[in-house]
Amino acid sequence: MSKKVLLLHGWGGSDYPHWQSWLAGELARDYGTVCFPLLDHPHFPSKNRWMRQVKAMLEAFRPDVVICHSLANTLWFHLCEEGAIAPVEHLFLVAPPRLDCEIETIKSFFPVTPPANLFAENVQLVTSTTDPYMTPEEARSLRAALDVPMMVLEDAGHINADSGYGEWPWILEQLQEIK
């Protein structure tokens, strides 16, 4: 794959055996260009600090593809609302939390409004029927607000290592299909 891929983790990071870690390894193994940064203090994140970091990465790395997991989706929404980012070709929004999450440690990220512009030519929302951070109804509302395609995984939890998503061939196949 000749595209540059930026992987953005959520609260707590996405280290091995998470699918983002696996995907970074698979892309690098085939000489792909991948950026998989550990954002500052992943267990105690700061929205403003993460926004500054990701804006700097976007400017320096200039990705074609961005793949967000969990809290990174919320971060992307804030970046879109601010409007100071360059558009990407492909955006994957995987397992976003609800827009009004009330977890104390990540409260600086909420509430968030779905942005009118996602700064991406192609968007794929991926949710689960059993995500503890977003109900299927909330996922359908988000899909409608964003007006993007949505793939719903059955009983996939938060689509992370704890729910069996260490290796995730589907996401790798999606990237391999991008020319």
TrEMBL record:
Pfam families: Ser_hydrolase. Coiled coil: none annotated. It comes from Sulfurimonas diazotrophicus. It comes from the Bacteria. This is Alpha/beta hydrolase. GO terms for molecular function: hydrolase activity. Keywords: Hydrolase.
